[in-house]
Specification:
This protein is an alpha+beta fold. The chain has nine helices and six strands; from the N terminus they run H-H-H-E-E-H-H-H-H-E-E-H-H-E-E. Strand 5 and strand 6 form a beta hairpin. The longest helix is centred in the middle third of the chain and has 22 residues, at 106-127.
């Protein structure tokens, strides 16, 4: 059901280290044995790569108690590791937004966000033409957002709702400076999916990803 399944799209051009970091980015913390299985190698080989990445400050290990026996070791990205994934022209974007805010005022910034939302909505609506079901629209939205750098994915949940996730935010610096971008994107999702969309996880609030429940 997933449209961004890593097991089916491993890129031989990527190093094992890069693929491990992508796994942590898209799936969250995991043990080396699980990471090795997903990449078609051994848990020990994955662990050795994690140790090398940890020396570079990109990942870190934490011990998780699982009852009797030794705590399990889970690996996760550090802040530096998350920053390894691109934030589109972050510094320049932040400077421009701050300049608009200080020179032209908050209303001008709101107008900019509204204009971007309108343009995005027009583009997404065009992409949705011919999609007659919610799943079709979700598939197309996921493809669009992944092309734009959001590492998007979706799954059908046991209660019949859908979970739409974005494992990366390529405009995170801009969204941190002005959270109106996040509000606008959620509104766009509601419009093009033609249903209720509720954000349940938010990168700007410390979550690993942005997640939306769609009913």
């Amino acid at each position: 059901m997933s449209s961004n399944d890593l097991e089916n799209k491993n890129d031989v051009r990527q190093s094992v280290a890069e693929r491990l970091m992508t796994l942590l980015k898209t799936r969250g913390e995991m043990q080396a044995s699980d990471a090795g299985h997903l990449l078609g190698t051994t848990g020990e080989a994955a662990r050795q790569q994690f140790v090398k990445l940890a020396k570079d400050g990109l990942v870190e290990a934490k011990a998780v108690s699982q009852g009797v026996g030794r705590p399990a070791q889970y690996w996760q990205l550090t802040a530096k590791g998350h920053a390894h994934f691109p934030d589109a022209h972050a510094d320049l974007t932040v400077q421009l937004l701050q300049l608009i805010r200080t020179s032209l005022g908050e209303s001008a910034l709101d107008q900019l966000i509204t204009s971007r939302e309108s343009q995005t909505l027009d583009n997404y609506r065009q992409a949705m033409k011919g999609a007659n079901s919610l799943e079709e629209r979700l598939q197309r939205l996921t493809a669009i957002r992944t092309r734009e750098g959001y590492m998007a994915d979706w799954t059908l949940q046991t209660d019949g709702s859908y979970l739409f996730v974005e494992n990366h935010c390529p405009i995170c610096a801009a969204a941190t400076t002005c959270q109106g971008f996040c509000r606008a994107e959620r509104d766009v999702f509601r419009d093009v999916l033609e249903t209720n969309v509720e954000r349940t996880e938010h990168i700007l609030q410390g979550a690993r990803r942005c997640a939306y429940v769609i009913r």
